[in-house]
Amino acid sequence: MNSKTGRRLFLLFGFIFLSISLLLLFSSISTGAFFAGYELVFLGTAVMSFCLAYLYPQFKDNDERAKRIRERGMFISYFFILGYMIILMPLLQFELIVLSGYQTVSLLSTMTIITVFTSFVVLSKRF
Questions:
Q1: Which among 126, 127, 110, 124 is positioned nearest to 54, based on CA atoms?
Q2: What is the DSSP string of 93-127?
Q3: Which residues of the chain carry a pLDDT beneath 70?
Q4: SS3 for 61?
Q5: Distance CA 7, CA 97 (A)
Q6: What is the pTM of this model?
Q7: For 100-110, what is each residue's pLDDT tens digit?
Q8: Helix axes 3-31, 38-59, angle to 10 degrees
Q9: Quick check: 36 and 28 in contact, CB under 8 A?
Q10: What's the CA gap between 39 and 23, in Å, rounded?
């Protein structure tokens, strides 16, 4: 698959996931069950698709630069994810925010997806 086809495919998937996310968000708001959790996962998947559309030409070769971006991106993301958990634990413990287990896992997974792939994009510009 050439570079333009891969990018277009990821962009198409990104817009599909974004539209599904917006549709689920509006339907959950209209039914009064705001933030059921699954809306965010589709939003995170949309961000991931857009990031992969940008990164596809650089990652398709799987050279030393792509491996370094992945390594550094995962390393940096680890600390951000740890920070999310450190911030989220007291908020949940002292009931400053009230989330179910599914909502909490959905929030953490979305933040993880967005953090990892955004760090890849930032590091691809740096290296």
A1: 124
A2: HTTSS---HHHHHHHHHHHHHHHHHHHHHHHHHH-
A3: 1
A4: coil
A5: 39
A6: 0.92
A7: 999 999 999 99
A8: 170
A9: yes
A10: 9
Domain boundaries, position 29: 3-126
At residue 34, the pLDDT reads: 73
Count CB atoms within 10 A of the CB of residue 3. 11
Query: What is the C-alpha to C-alpha distance for residues 66 and 40, in angstroms, rounded to an integer?
Result: 28
* Encoded tokens for 26: 């509006």
C-alpha–C-alpha distance, residues 6 and 11, integer Å: 9
CA–CA separation, 12 and 5 (whole Å): 10
Token pair recorded at residue 49: 């698709």
Domain count, the chain: 1
The tokens describing 101, both together, are 């287990």
Q: What are the backbone dihedrals phi and psi of residue 34, each rounded to the nearest 5 degrees, phi first? A: -65, 140
Two structure tokens written together for 112: 């993880």
Q: What is the dihedral of CA 89, 84, 25, 73, to 10 degrees?
A: -160
